[in-house]
Each structure stands twice: as structure tokens, then as C-alpha cells.
Design a protein that fits this description.
Blueprint: H1 5-20, E1 26-35, E2 45-53, E3 61-71, H2 74-79, E4 80-81, E5 85-89, E6 97-106, E7 111-119, E8 127-130, E9 134-137, E10 143-147, E11 150-157, H3 161-182
Antiparallel strand pairs: 1-2, 1-11, 2-3, 3-5, 4-6, 5-6, 6-7, 8-11, 9-10
């Protein structure tokens, strides 16, 4: 039985297209500055951290930090320690915003946290989202505060190694068929 070269090309394109489909794994990179709330001391500080998960964040939970850096004024900068986990809550305490509860640990064994709010749905769609600045109130009448930190959340899909192998196999197959047709 002989398979036509057109059928082989279509099969190769299908494999390549399937391999190029984004995976469910995602990287969440958060960078912020101008925050004064986390340590309760004078001056501003900033930071960056990255969280990687196998699935988009759709429910509240703690997520392991894969990289982190912090900066601050004087002695404060020397006592900042990156946390091993950060809290994400796509429902943001029912405020209509997505929320990251940023933890910062100090050298004395204590930790403080601040809140960074983003537009609803920020955790499930690839893109760059600015930190919300302004006033947020609790739907039950409480007051969360005025938020003035600046920065962004970047969400991007992480290709799985299997997808890259499939893409390479599909492209190799297409190159083989194209070369074979020329001979």
C-alpha cells in the first residue's frame, strides 16, 4: 500500500500543529516597587518573584517560588529574605480582583505580607497585567486600603519538553517529505 506524499505532508503538519499548542503549564512573574507596607518600616522597597505551575491558577492556594529578588533602603535591604511560597487568590476575597498576598521575611524570623490586586482573570490568561492602584473595599462593608505599589504580573505558557520533541519530529518529517519530492 502506497501513501501519497500529500497525505504524509498533512500528517506532518498535524503533528507540528499539535506540538505548537501551548501547554497548561504556566509561569507567573511578578515585579513590584514603591511598596512600603510589607515590613512596616520607612522607605520603599521592591521585588520580583517567579512561580511556575502545571496548571493555570483557578483556585486560591500557596505556590512555590522558583526565583526571587528583593531590594530596599539601607539596613532593611540587608535583612530581606525571599519567601519559599506566595499566596494567589483569583477571587481576591470576593472583591472582583485577582489577588497575590506577597510575603516578605526578615532576618529576625518574622514575616509580613502585603496585597497586590490585579484585574479579574489575570491568572488564567497569558499577558501582562498592571498592579491595581487605588482603593478597594470589602463587599461586606470592610475597607482593605489604598494601594499604591507599581509593577506588573506577566503570565506565560511554558512549553512542555514533550511538545518540543513533537514539534521537532513534525518538522523533521516535513523536511524529509519535501526533500523526497524533489528527488
Amino acid at each position: 500500500m502506497r501513501i501519497s506524499s500529500n497525505a504524509l505532508i498533512v500528517a506532518g503538519l498535524t503533528v507540528a500543529a499539535l506540538a505548537a499548542t501551548p501547554s497548561h503549564a504556566a509561569t507567573y512573574e511578578v515585579s513590584y516597587s514603591g511598596a512600603t507596607w510589607a515590613l512596616g518600616v520607612g522607605g520603599t522597597y521592591g521585588g520580583q518573584f517567579t512561580v511556575q505551575t502545571d496548571t493555570p491558577i483557578t483556585t486560591a492556594g500557596s505556590f512555590a517560588v522558583s526565583s526571587c529578588s528583593l531590594s530596599g533602603p539601607g539596613a532593611v535591604a540587608n535583612s530581606l529574605i525571599c519567601p519559599t511560597v506566595q499566596q494567589f487568590d483569583p477571587n481576591g476575597y470576593n472583591t472582583g480582583y485577582s489577588l497575590i498576598e506577597v510575603r516578605v521575611e526578615n532576618g529576625n524570623g518574622g514575616s509580613n505580607q502585603g496585597l497586590l490586586f490585579f484585574e479579574s482573570g489575570s491568572f488564567t490568561t497569558n499577558g501582562v497585567y498592571p498592579i491595581f492602584t487605588g482603593t478597594i473595599t470589602d463587599p461586606n462593608g470592610g475597607f482593605y486600603g489604598n494601594f499604591a505599589a507599581v509593577g506588573t504580573l506577566t503570565v506565560s505558557a511554558v512549553p512542555e519538553p514533550e511538545s518540543l520533541v513533537m514539534l521537532l519530529a513534525g518538522m523533521t518529517w516535513l523536511a524529509f517529505i519535501t526533500r523526497r519530492r524533489r528527488i
